[in-house]
Structure formats: structure tokens, C-alpha cells
Design goal:
This protein is an alpha/beta fold. Among the domains are: about 225-380, DNA repair protein MutS, domain I (MutS, DNA mismatch repair protein, domain I, 3-Layer(aba) Sandwich); about 395-555, MutS, connector domain (Nucleotidyltransferase, domain 5); about 590-735 and about 830-870, Orthogonal Bundle (MutS, DNA mismatch repair protein, Chain A, domain 3); about 880-1100, Rossmann fold, CATH 3.40.50. The chain is built from 37 helices and 28 strands. Strands 12-22-23-24-20-25-26 form a seven-stranded mixed beta sheet, with helices on both faces. Strand 9 (about 450-455), helix 12 and strand 10 form a beta-alpha-beta unit. Helix 20 (about 600-610) crosses helix 30 and helix 28 (about 735-765) runs antiparallel to helix 29 (about 810-840). It comes from Pichia inconspicua.
Length: about 1150
């Protein structure tokens, strides 16, 4: 065989390892002039990915074709030059769309890892069928993107890097192994692949060596066996205190590692396991160069849950999976959404910074100091996310801690609660007394819907725990942490807070001082739990130091006197925030009304919905603003167009304080305040056209603070560089240290340009230029025609057929110095960014004052846009200031059944007139009718319309008139509550009891089929007694829906009870019903249960027998359920007898004042007169 044909064979054989495409022409026919860039092949950096990087750096008009490395042109493989590097081999890169962002193998079958014994399944990981011996590359601990084999011998810094002398044959074997393992983008062949072409250039002696080595363990099996022996302590897990997993005191967050294992660890393993052993239940992303890697258990999770590839035989003696640095946020979010905590371990220094540290003599002499320094950056959990790339939406995600104290003697539970929205740095704290059913706690949880809950282990009552789980977010995470040591008591909390404020020169928040003086120790302990948890996540300094603390007390009198009360049961029954179908916001009132533009405005709007206004003037102010926006399209358009340009300033202020905001986002913050200034100036010019709340916001806007803020920050740094390059470069004169460092860089760059001019003059060629190759900068590119003139002391770095690249001694020295100066300059820039952020953070209170004012504008705009979307008819509700409450809606439609809602076509919805309390009569409607006739929808519609009116929104009706309602209380449905251990009847009576305790004459109460959870006699008696009490003694507005047809007989002459029914058309012969969904006066003609049964397909014979049985039972029950005595043949309801007895003893029959007592007596006497 000729030498030329041998060369071609070698080249084609080499290419077969890196591409399955047709072999390119020999290098002699290539026109490739592009120097080869040095890259590394790692378990996470496939050859295809390296080729893709080259493609990005190659001009489009240049063809990329493989050039045979010079080292392969020698006749003797054994004696070949060992300077070959993987980076000198390139291949055609796939299209951008074909390159995934991470090494994921799709449709790969998950394989369970067994620590205790070697599994035969290990052979599944060996893709190649050739039986030659494979060698394992032990990767070094440097930036993977900079790795070069030919320089690796000199890099003995890292404990996890091993290199030995080897022939080209062995290096090619290694590349073959790696290229096969990393072929993640092509499906595995169905049949065995052909024998590799590299065998054609190997001697018969080499073939014999491969055959002999095949009898030994494969690298995969050998690795698994060594891994099993090395990590035998992972077979039987123990926590840091030595507790087994079966132990009640087992702590899943920690891991016990025996001292014998620590003694055998490499420096890198010690670095990794020192972090991982303290967060065993957390997925740890470990920074390695340009990748984040997961090891052992975390790698198994990544492989089994997300099909991330387990790379080859691992690295640093551990199984691994990895993702590119740029896709960390994406993968972190996927792990968090799957219920995992995610820890990010970052490199504190680059390889160059490490060399500078060692050169300056700062490193220790031990082996651990040779490893690149890393540290835990932070831990991400579902309830403590800050970065907008990880947050799903603009809604608040709360992390809540709960402390409980039980007083069994007085049947009182005292709760201390602290919850924080980490994305905004807002802490809210409260302490309150509650009943044993946790009514207030349930309301609180329904309002905030916590995403993560902190609980002292074994200290919560079981019923409280069930309430927590039932009313938290469906995907909420629950953390049971150790009392005292982790969930601090109030004394430990105060001590830690005092030390924290002293260390960071902060002032203790006033609300915490107040709670300590007033001995609200449960709330302080709850804050202690949050404090410890944030410290464990590395978030305490950045969040607590903001000092953004306030009290959240929805139960205090001031709030109750200014807003409507909506308890947790009502929020669920009316589907205000979550529907009852899939717990999403589809079809909810909040979804319909929340049409704000800004993220911080939408968060504020939720509090508007939770707390509808009670004061008539405040409601009218909102309605005036909404009406003015609906009538003036120019102002509405101005608000929309300007607010759309604003970023989430509130959340970004938190990241400015924590110094984690990207420079381009800092520019967005500055520009947002500029837009706000433009908006306020435009609104101020038209202030005469504004009305109500919107006008008040503009007049009282902190314009001076805004102008001062913009004056301090305009022109301080280069915005274009911050946006395009991600660096904050101050303008000249702003920072002295930066200017000095920048001058050093300029001086060095000038010297390098002078040298280039000298070289061009000396060698008489203007084609000599500087080129950068990766992190090797200022390489001197020389055309081939003058290569012979180049001195021997110039170091060749790369070559093509047309040019070569060198480093001269002078340029090499200056380039190295320039890189070091730029690295120091980079640190100065980072410190400079921190200083700029710290200065901006001093204006946090001013900024928040501005943000809150803009958020109110957005809430008003949201109401206007929601009102506009209601369709026709639409009206402004009239708020009536009357002694007695009333509601009067004409042609009212449910706001969630509107065009675009996706729930129901608007033409299918039948509007209704609803009137209660007019002329101080008919305050409660006794609603009867068949199932599926629309009763429940009517009840919910009445309540939702009332809430909308008191928020300040227009209504989907022809007209609306009402007095402010102080509370809406509902008892809907007949569901039991397995999560809370309650039966249907118990839930009914419990909710009814709360309504009886808290309802007032200005409340709106809704009871749907009360008593159906018990026996007929018990249910009927309870229903009659409750209805009489609400109508006679409390005198609330409301509806009482029932299937007890005879219930209305006791209230025929009650002036506050009006019989109502849902209209239907019934065909007795065919038992078909036509639902008209129209509210009518009068008693229903029956429940039509047999008609509904027939419509549902129940066999006719069964329906007929049931009809006979029902008629017989009804006749008997009428006699048995006669809960009255008779006087002259007239029945006397038991309610009248009870009231008369109670009043005759001199006891009060109502507690709402003389006027309501007068109305009570009036109702009783009218009923007696009509007997």
C-alpha cells in the first residue's frame, strides 16, 4: 500500500469516530484557511457541540473541511509526535436547530443503579462492539472549555486530573470511546454497528493486544465495581447524627460519611461531599468550567426523571450528568417544578485567577488549595425564588412559618404566623387567637395560598396540620424542621436578630420591637423559623437586611370596619381565585377582573379583591375613575402605552439590594422610572379631566423624589455596554479606581499595536495581523510566504495551509500581562457594580413609594379594562347609603360567563332580576326547584356581583343598586372533607355555626340545601330553625336554597322571607324537563327528582317504583314532620313559640340595637296575626 493511500485511510478512519457523514476529500484538496481553535472534549462536551462552536466562529463563505494532522503523516504510529490534541480535529457541525441546549438522550430506558452488587445491565452503557481495551480519561478541574491535552501535563494543580504518556493509538482509542459515548443526538442503531475503521491502520500486534484485553473487565464494569466499593456507605443511608432512614428522628437533609471515606477522598471529592452531605435532599449543580455537573444520586435523578445522559464512566470517581452553564435556569426550574430543591455551587475564581492567587502566594501548600475554589451560591426552592427566569408568573409566592400554642382550658388556639415573598423581600407577621376549628387560620391561608410551609417537627396539632395541607397551594412544599435549634423560639430569634443587625449595621424593624414588647412570642418564633430557613438558603443577608416588615392582620377592627369580610370557605365556594374543578384560575373572578398591565399592579390587585371596600365614598372614588377612563379613551391609552413599558420594578429592587441584578436589567429599572416620569407629567397636564382615585394619585404623586432619583442616575454609566455586553462601565470621573485600571489596559493595548506595526515593517508584510483563538489573545497571524523569516523563538500556536499563528516572546509577555490586568479589571467592575447597586439601594423607600402609586393606577386601569370587557348591557352600580341593607339587580349576568371567557357562550346565559331587602321586606329568598335548574349559579352570581361592585367595577346588568355589604358568607355544596377528617353533615353544621356567629344585618348569607347531610327529620328541623334565626333575629340579606318543599309553610306570613323558584317546564307523561333558568316568585311545584332520574337514563321500572315510594313517604313525612301545635286549626311554627317564650322571660331577642329589635317583634306579631 502506498504512503498516500495510507494517509487517506488514516484520515477517513479518524473521521469515522466523529461523524457518520461521508468522508471528506483529502487535505491536499482543501481550501480551508481557518486556523484550528483549541477545544476540549469532555463527558458533557460532545464532538458535535465542539464542531458547532467552530461553525459559529467560521465565516459563512469559507468551506470547512478536515485537514489531516501532521502527526498522523508519520509512518511509525508508536514514534509519532505526541502533541496531537482533540482540538485539531474538526468536523461538519449540525444545524443550529439540531443542537440541543443540553446533553439529553430521548427515549432512553432508565436503568436502576445498584450500589451493593455489580449489575449485568452495566454492559448496556457500552455502545461500541469492538473489543479493544478502552482507557478512562480523568478530567482535570479547570474550565472545560480551555482544556488541551498537550498542556495537561503541566497542569498538576488539581487532584482530580491524571495524565500519563500514551501513544497516538491510545489517544485515538480514548477519543473513540468519548465520541461514541457522547453520540446523544442520533438514535441507536437497531443492528450491531460495523467494525471501526481505525482497526485498518493498526498492526497485527495491536489487534492481539486488544483481543487479550477483552477478557478483562470493561471500563464501565470496572468503574461500577470501584464506585460500589468506594461509596459502600451509600448502601445503608444514615443522617449526620447516625439515624437510619427507619428511625423517627431521621433527618433526610443530611448524610453520614465515615471518616475512612474522608481519608480516601481526593481533594475534589472532599470539596464536593463537604457540601452535598449537608444537603442530601437537594439536587446540587456543581460548576465545572462551562458546565454544571450532577454526581451520584443527583445524576441518577437527572437520568431517570429528565432523561439526562449518564456520561461514560464518570468523572472524579463518581457517576455524573451535566448541563451547559447557559441552560442552568432552565434545568433548575424543571427540577423545582418536579418538587426538588436545587443548590447552585459556583466557582469563586477562574483558572487564570487561580494562577494569579498562586503566583501572589495566597494559596496554601496543601493539596486542597490546588483545587479551584468553589462555594455554595444559593439554594432554590419553590417558595423562595427571586430570578424572573425561574418564576412562572407575576403572582406572589409565599414561604410561611407557623407556630401554634393550645389552651385546652379555654378552647383557644394561638397562632404565630410569618410569611415572606422573597421575590419582593416583603415580610408580613401576625399573631391571633382562633377557635379549635381554625376558622381564622383557614381564611388566612386561603388569602395568601402559601407555596412553601415551615413547621416545627412534632409540634403541630393534627387538625391544624390538615388545615395547612388542605388550604396551601396544590404544589406546596412542607418542611418539618427541628424545634429550638432550627425553628427558633422567641429568645433565640431576638438574639440572632440582634447579632445580625449589629453585624450589618441595621435597625431592628419597628414591628418586631412592638411584638416583643407586647409579648407576641409565637409570631416572633415563626419569624425565627423563616430567619433560620433563609440563612440555610444563603438568602438571609440579601432579604432580611431590606427591613421590609409589616403586620398583616385581616382580623383587626380597623380593616373589618373598612372592607368586606370574605372568609376562606367563601373564597373557595365562590371560586374567587381557584376553581373547584382543577384548582386553576380558569373561570374565576380574579382571572376575569385582573387585567392590569404591570406585574406589581397585578399583585396589588389581588389585595383589592380580597378586601372589597365598605366605605361608600371610597367605592365611589374608584367608580368615578373607572368611568372617566371609559369615557376618555386618550387617557386610558396613555396609561396602557406607558405602563406596558415598565419592567417588574418591585422585584428588581430586591435583586438590586442583593446585588444579583444583571446590568441590562438595571438599565431597564432606570428606564422604567424615566417612563413613569413621562406618564406623571402627561397626566398632570390633564389633571382637570381626571376624577376620583386616579386624580388623587396624580396630585399626591411623589414627583420630587422621582426627579431627584433620575437626576442622580442619568449619565452615570454607559447604558449601551450594560445592555449589549452585560457590564457597567462608569463614565469618566465617576470612579477613580476604574479609571486607573482602564488606563492600564489602554496602555498595554497600545504597546501591542506598536509591536504589530514593528513586525509589519520588519517583515515587510501588511498581512500580519492579530487574531484571538478562544482565550488565547493577540496571536500573530503570518502568511505562509514569509513563514521562513519568522525567528525560532516565536511559539507556533496554530496553522492552516495559508497561514500560521505565533506568539513572539514580547507579545506573549504583554498578552499574559493584559489578561491578568483584564482579570483584575473584571473584579473591579464586579465591585463597582456592587457599589453602584448599594448606592441605588439607599433610595429603596422612595422607589417603593413611587411603585405603589403606579400600582394603584394600574389597578384602576384593570377595573376599567375589565368593565369594558363585560359586554352589553353594562352599568355603573349605585351605592345606596341606607339604614337597612338591600340589593337590587336588573338583568344580571354572571361575569365569568362572558364572551372570551371560554366557559359558556354568552347567548346561552339567561339574565335574572334579583331583589332583596327592598322596602325593608323580603330580605331572604327561600329558593326551591329541581336539581340542575340553575339555583347554585344564581346564588354565586349574586355574591360575585356584590364583590365586583364594592371593588369598584362596573356590572354586567341593566341596572344595579345596593348598600355596602360588610361580609359574604356561604354554605354551598354537600362535600365531605377527607383531608380535614370531616363528614358532610359535620361540614354543613360547622360552616352554618360560623355564619350564625359572625353574620350581621348588613351581611349577605347564602345557604344551599342545609340539612341534607343528615336524616330527613333532623335536616328539616335544623333548616327551619336556622332560616327562622337569620330572617327574624339577625335580619341578614341572603338566599336559602332547599329541596324541603314543606319548609316554606312555616314562613308563609313572615315579612322577611319571600318564596322563589327556578322556572321549568315539566312533561308528566315523558318525564322530560325543560330548564328555563329564570327566577320566579312562588313555591316550586316539586323537586322533580324522578324526572331528573329518567333524563339520566335510569330504567323506567325503577323510576315508576320510586315514584310510588316517594308519594307514600311524602304523605307520611308530612304528618311526622309537623313541628307545631295548633290553635283553632291554625299551625303555630315552633320558631314563634320559641321566640315568645324567650321574650316573655325578659331576654333580648336580637343584639343589633333597638331598630332591629323593633323589626324582629314586628315580624313575630305579623306572623301571629295571620295564623
Amino acid at each position: 500500500m502506498s504512503v498516500d493511500s495510507s494517509k487517506k485511510m488514516k484520515q477517513a478512519s479518524l473521521m469515522s469516530f466523529f461523524t457518520k457523514k461521508k468522508v471528506q476529500k483529502p487535505a491536499s484538496q482543501s481550501t480551508n484557511d481557518v486556523p484550528v481553535q483549541v477545544d476540549s472534549i469532555t463527558p458533557d462536551n460532545s464532538v458535535a457541540e465542539i464542531a458547532f462552536k467552530h461553525k459559529l466562529n467560521t465565516p459563512a463563505n469559507e468551506k470547512k473541511i478536515l485537514e489531516t494532522p501532521k502527526s498522523l503523516k508519520t509512518k511509525d504510529v508508536k514514534n509519532a509526535d505526541t502533541s496531537i490534541t482533540p482540538s485539531k480535529i474538526t468536523t461538519t457541525a449540525p444545524a443550529i436547530s439540531e443542537v440541543p441546549s443540553s446533553p439529553v438522550v430521548m427515549n432512553r430506558k432508565s436503568r436502576k443503579i445498584n450500589y451493593s452488587e455489580l449489575s449485568d445491565d452495566d454492559e448496556d452503557d457500552i455502545v461500541a462492539v469492538t473489543k479493544k481495551k478502552r482507557r478512562t480519561i480523568a478530567w482535570d478541574d479547570i474550565d472545560d472549555d480551555d482544556f488541551r491535552v498537550d498542556d495537561a501535563v503541566a497542569d498538576e494543580d488539581d487532584e482530580d486530573f491524571i495524565i500519563d504518556e500514551k501513544s497516538h493509538k491510545e489517544e485515538l482509542d480514548e477519543l473513540n470511546d468519548k465520541s461514541i459515548v457522547d453520540e446523544a443526538h442520533e438514535p441507536a442503531p437497531k443492528s450491531s454497528p460495523p467494525r471501526n475503521k481505525i482497526s485498518s491502520i493498526l498492526s497485527s500486534k495491536s489487534k492481539t493486544q486488544f483481543k487479550t484485553s477483552s477478557a478483562k473487565l470493561t471500563p464501565q464494569k470496572k468503574f461500577n465495581k470501584e464506585n460500589e466499593e468506594r461509596y459502600h456507605w451509600l448502601v445503608t443511608l444514615k443522617d449526620a447524627d447516625g439515624h437510619l432512614e427507619t428511625d423517627p428522628d431521621y433527618d433526610p437533609r443530611t448524610l453520614f460519611i465515615p471518616q475512612s471515606a474522608w481519608d480516601k477522598f481526593t481533594a475534589f471529592e472532599k470539596q464536593y461531599w463537604s457540601i452535598k452531605s449537608k444537603m442530601w435532599d437537594t439536587v446540587v449543580f456543581f460548576k465545572k468550567g462551562k458546565f454544571f455537573e450532577l454526581y451520584e444520586k443527583d445524576a441518577d435523578i437527572a437520568h431517570s426523571k429528565f432523561d439526562l445522559k449518564l456520561a461514560g464512566t464518570g468523572r472524579a470517581n463518581m457517576r455524573l450528568a451535566g448541563v451547559p452553564e447557559m441552560s442552568f435556569d432552565y434545568w433548575a426550574k424543571r427540577f423545582i417544578d418536579a418538587g426538588y430543591k436545587v443548590a447552585k455551587v459556583d466557582q469563586k475564581e477562574s483558572m487564570l485567577a487561580k494562577e494569579i492567587r498562586e503566583k501572589q502566594g495566597d494559596s496554601k501548600s496543601d493539596k486542597e488549595s490546588k483545587v479551584i475554589q468553589r462555594e455554595l451560591a444559593y439554594i432554590l426552592t419553590c417558595g423562595t425564588l427571586i430570578d424572573e427566569n425561574l418564576l412562572n408568573d407575576e403572582s406572589s409566592k409565599y414561604c410561611l412559618a407557623l407556630k401554634e400554642k393550645i389552651d385546652y382550658a379555654n378552647n383557644i388556639k394561638t397562632f404565630g404566623v410569618c410569611f415572606v415573598d422573597v421575590s419582593t423581600g416583603s415580610f408580613q407577621i401576625l399573631e391571633f387567637n382562633d377557635d379549635f376549628e381554625c376558622s381564622k387560620l383557614e381564611t388566612l391561608l386561603s388569602q395568601i395560598n402559601p407555596m412553601e410551609v415551615l413547621i416545627p417537627k412534632n409540634e403541630l396539632d393534627s387538625h391544624t396540620l390538615r388545615i395547612l395541607k388542605f388550604n396551601s397551594h396544590p404544589s406546596a412544599s412542607f418542611n418539618f424542621i427541628k424545634p429550638e435549634t432550627e425553628f427558633w423560639d422567641h429568645e433565640k430569634t431576638i438574639d440572632e436578630l440582634s447579632a445580625f443587625t449589629t453585624e450589618h449595621d441595621l435597625k431592628t424593624p419597628d414591628i418586631l420591637n412592638s411584638y416583643y414588647k407586647n409579648e407576641r412570642f409565637n409570631a416572633l418564633s415563626a419569624f425565627g423559623g423563616v430567619f433560620w430557613y433563609l440563612r440555610s438558603l444563603k438568602l438571609d443577608v440579601s432579604i432580611i437586611s431590606m427591613g421590609n416588615f409589616k403586620e398583616y392582620d385581616p382580623f383587626n377592627k380597623a380593616l373589618l370596619n373598612s372592607s368586606m369580610r370574605l372568609d376562606g370557605v367563601t373564597l373557595q365556594n365562590l371560586e374567587i381565585f381557584n376553581n373547584s374543578f382543577d384548582q386553576s384560575d380558569r373561570g374565576t373572578l380574579f382571572k376575569v377582573l385582573n387585567k392590569g398591565v404591570t406585574s406589581f399592579g397585578k399583585r396589588m390587585f389581588k389585595s383589592w379583591v380580597i378586601h372589597p371596600l365598605l366605605n361608600k365614598d371610597a367605592i365611589e372614588d374608584r367608580l368615578d375613575s373607572v368611568e372617566s377612563l371609559l369615557n376618555d379613551g386618550d387617557i386610558k391609552y396613555l396609561l396602557e402605552s406607558k405602563l406596558k413599558k415598565l419592567c417588574d420594578v418591585e422585584r428588581m429592587l430586591t435583586r438590586i439590594h442583593s446585588k444579583t441584578l444583571k446590568p441590562k436589567d438595571f438599565v431597564r429599572v432606570i428606564e422604567s422610572f424615566e417612563v413613569i416620569s413621562e406618564l406623571i407629567n402627561a397626566l398632570s397636564a390633564n389633571v382637570d379631566n381626571l376624577r376620583g382615585l386616579l386624580k388623587s394619585i396624580v396630585v399626591e404623586f411623589p414627583l420630587l423624589e422621582l426627579e431627584e432619583l433620575l437626576e442622580n442616575w442619568n449619565g452615570k454609566f454607559d447604558k449601551s455596554l450594560a445592555i449589549n455586553e452585560g457590564v457597567i462601565v462608569p463614565n469618566e470621573g465617576v470612579d477613580e479606581e476604574f479609571d486607573e485600571s482602564n488606563n492600564k489596559i489602554t496602555t498595554l493595548e497600545k504597546k501591542l499595536e506598536d509591536l504589530l506595526s514593528e513586525y509589519r515593517s520588519e517583515y515587510r508584510s501588511s498581512e500580519i495581523v492579530y487574531k484571538d483563538s478562544g482565550k488565547e489573545i493577540y496571536l500573530i497571524e503570518v502568511p505562509m510566504k514569509i513563514v521562513g523569516k519568522i525567528p525560532h523563538d516565536w511559539q507556533q500556536m496554530a496553522a492552516t495551509s495559508k497561514c500560521k499563528r505565533y506568539w513572539s516572546p514580547e507579545v506573549r509577555t504583554l498578552a499574559k500581562e493584559l489578561m491578568e490586568v483584564k482579570e483584575l479589571h473584571k473584579m473591579i467592575c464586579m465591585n463597582l457594580k456592587d457599589k453602584i447597586y448599594a448606592n441605588f439601594d439607599k433610595s429603596y423607600e422612595k422607589c417603593m413609594k413611587i411603585v405603589q402609586s403606579v400600582a394603584k393606577m394600574d389597578c384602576v386601569l384593570s377595573l376599567a379594562r375589565a368593565s369594558e370587557a363585560l359586554g352589553f348591557p353594562m352599568c355603573r352600580p349605585e351605592i345606596v347609603d341606607s339604614e337597612y341593607s338591600l340589593i337590587d339587580f336588573k338583568q344580571l349576568r354572571h361575569p365569568c360567563f362572558l364572551p372570551g371567557s371560554g366557559i359558556l357562550r354568552t347567548k346561552d346565559f339567561i339574565p335574572n332580576d334579583i331583589a332583596l331587602g327592598l322596602d325593608n321586606k323580603n330580605r331572604i329568598g327561600l329558593l326551591t326547584g329541581a336539581n340542575a335548574a340553575g339555583k347554585s349559579t344564581l346564588l354565586r352570581m349574586s355574591c360575585v356581583a356584590t364583590i365586583m361592585a364594592q371593588i369598584g367595577c362596573f356590572l354586567p346588568a341593566e341596572s344595579a343598586r345596593l348598600t355596602p355589604i360588610d361580609a359574604i358568607m356561604t354554605r354551598l355544596g354537600a362535600n365531605d372533607n377527607i383531608m380535614q377528617g370531616k363528614s358532610t353533615f359535620y361540614v354543613e353544621l360547622l360552616e352554618t355555626k360560623k355564619m350564625l356567629d359572625n353574620a350581621t344585618p348588613r351581611s349577605l348569607v347564602v345557604l344551599d340545601e342545609l340539612g341534607r347531610g343528615g336524616s330527613s327529620s333532623d335536616g328539616f328541623a335544623i333548616a327551619e330553625a336556622v332560616l327562622h334565626h337569620f330572617a327574624t333575629h339577625i335580619q341578614s340579606l341572603g338566599f336559602f336554597a332547599t329541596h324541603y318543599a314543606s319548609l316554606g309553610d312555616a314562613f308563609v306570613h313572615h315579612r322577611q322571607v319571600v318564596p322563589l323558584r327556578m322556572a321549568i317546564l315539566a312533561d308528566a307523561a315523558s318525564k322530560k324537563l325543560t330548564f328555563l333558568y329564570t327566577l320566579e316568585h312562588g313555591k316550586s311545584h316539586g323537586s322533580f327528582g324522578m324526572h331528573v332520574a329518567a333524563m339520566c337514563g335510569i330504567p323506567e321500572k325503577i323510576v315508576e317504583r320510586a315514584t310510588v315510594a316517594a308519594e307514600r313517604w311524602e304523605r307520611e313525612s308530612r304528618r311526622g314532620l309537623s313541628q307545631s301545635t295548633t290553635v283553632d286549626g291554625n299551625s303555630i311554627p315552633l320558631g314563634i313559640e320559641s321566640d315568645w317564650s324567650w321574650w316573655s322571660q325578659g331576654k333580648k331577642i336580637t343584639s343589633f340595637g333597638p331598630s332591629y329589635e323593633k323589626e324582629t317583634l314586628r315580624s313575630v306579631f305579623e306572623m301571629i296575626e295571620n295564623l
